[in-house]
């Protein structure tokens, strides 16, 4: 059994809490937050506290906190002899600097409150001491996650990659939704295409399966599309991404 | 039984041929192409021809051809008393102008040769005569497609929306892949995130589930990401999409 004390009550903390609680190999002994209010959802399920001095003992202290408060909270845990990890994509391992045993437990997934995650979660793991990596692998394995050893430098690049394949992709969906709504077409009509586009890159390199007017250098369609777009910013996005596809595939601009 | 003559041998033609052939309600009586070579894959399965004067009779002539040749091929079919349709997202119904009965049978999906489509295909249907719309609905239904009545004007906007949610999304995946490859991380690590991001918009509006540094106006992460990106063009894409997310959500720039 791995005993966990969870610090934080946001999206990542909430999803980790649910996953840990559902596992037979992990027990969440306590949840910490500086503000009482956001602890209420956890009160019926485990112990809670707003006082860092009252943290229980645990095998792992998981700091699922906003990036900028991680160093100050970690500083207050530096006397602990157990493992202290954070869950951030961008904060380096060094931010836990004075903790004797430190590590990173970063779930590379998008979380929304009240939406259960339907896919297996990859965890990017890092630890100051080799043997703590094994403990983190056990923790990831206990919630059916897939473990990857990833350095702080690699993790920063992965977090950036995640912005492209998740946040920016979602904005492309939002632009598609807007075009549907304004033309009295249900957005659901685009969903099979969205699904298929995502599925395709499970078995193929996205670079190699690029399709569309840009890679075909189909100028008449590109010009017609630029004309159809209602805002200057949308035209700029279309033009820039068209150029980017063409230049990455060695087409003349 | 709906008898079809299929004109064209590209990705759309090939996928339609497979789907029609697998249906008990549809028979592909003949495939036409102007060049003999690309007909070879069909020869063991149905009749073929390179001569428009030798087309068989059929209930529907399906022109799955490049946009710019549709009008000239249609002009040569204008004596037909049966339905003539094209499969293009951008060409208007009028391009089949002199055909007595004309329509559009546009599959809103991405097709790659040798990759079977795993999702249900939405068909955007349009017809000069009301009763031909029923025939096209039957044709779509025969291959388990979902039928939508869509005007030429709506279809052009949908085709544009498809560029955003498919072609541009795929380029975002390619950028993510490049970041992985350059940092010795397997691209598979991003796939659960890609899948989850696509799944999320099946039950939620993408506008409403936007996440990431842009919508949080997390300037320090945004600046760190801009610094990490290796090319000027990638920085421009990051900055423009960040601005677009912020302005669409009413954030100050």
Task: Sum up the structure in keywords.
homodimer; about 250 residues; alpha/beta; 8-stranded mixed β-sheet; 7 helices; 8 strands; about 40% helix
Description:
The structure is a homodimer of 253-residue chains. Chain A contains seven helices and eight strands; from the N terminus they run E-H-E-E-E-H-E-E-E-H-E-H-H-H-H. The first copy, chain A, has 253 residues and is an alpha/beta fold. In chain A, strands 3-2-1-4-5-6-7-8 form an eight-stranded mixed beta sheet. The model of chain A has no long low-confidence stretch (mean pLDDT 94). At the A-B interface, helix 4, helix 5, helix 6 and helix 7 of A face helix 4, helix 5, helix 6 and helix 7 of B.
Shape of chain A: elongated
Rg over CA atoms of chain A: 22 Å
Largest interface: A-B, 92 and 94 residues
Percent helix among the residues of chain A? 40-55%
Write the layout of secondary structure elements.
The structure is a homodimer of 253-residue chains.
Chain A: E1 2-7, H1 11-22, E2 26-32, E3 47-49, E4 60-63, H2 70-75, E5 83-86, E6 101-107, E7 122-127, H3 130-142, E8 146-149, H4 152-182, H5 191-203, H6 219-228, H7 232-248
Parallel strand pairs in A: 1-2, 1-4, 2-3, 4-5, 5-6, 7-8
Antiparallel strand pairs in A: 6-7
Helix pairs in contact in A: 6-7
């Amino acid at each position: 059994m791995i005993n966990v004390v969870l610090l934080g009550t946001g999206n990542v903390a909430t999803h980790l809490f649910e996953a840990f609680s559902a596992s037979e190999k992990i027990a969440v002994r306590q949840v910490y937050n500086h503000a009482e209010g956001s602890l209420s959802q956890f009160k019926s399920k485990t112990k809670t506290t707003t006082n860092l001095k009252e943290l229980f003992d645990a095998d792992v202290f998981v700091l699922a906190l906003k990036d900028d408060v991680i160093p100050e909270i970690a500083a207050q845990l530096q006397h602990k002899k157990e493992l202290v990890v954070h869950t951030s994509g961008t904060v380096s391992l060094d931010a836990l600097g004075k903790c004797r045993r430190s590590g990173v437990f970063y779930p590379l997934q998008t979380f929304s409150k009240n939406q259960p995650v339907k896919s297996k979660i990859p965890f990017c793991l890092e630890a100051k001491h080799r043997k703590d990596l094994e403990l983190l692998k056990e923790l990831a394995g206990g919630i059916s996650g897939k473990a990857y050893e990833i350095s702080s430098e690699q993790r920063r690049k992965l977090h950036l990659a995640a912005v492209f394949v998740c946040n920016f992709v979602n904005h492309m969906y939002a632009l598609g939704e807007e075009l549907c709504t304004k033309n009295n077409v249900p957005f659901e009509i685009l969903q099979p295409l969205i699904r298929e586009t995502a599925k395709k890159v499970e078995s193929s390199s996205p670079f190699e399966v690029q399709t569309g007017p840009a890679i075909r250098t189909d100028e008449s369609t590109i010009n017609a599309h630029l004309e159809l777009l209602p805002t200057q910013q949308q035209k700029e996005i279309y033009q820039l991404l068209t150029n980017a596809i063409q230049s990455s595939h060695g087409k003349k601009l």
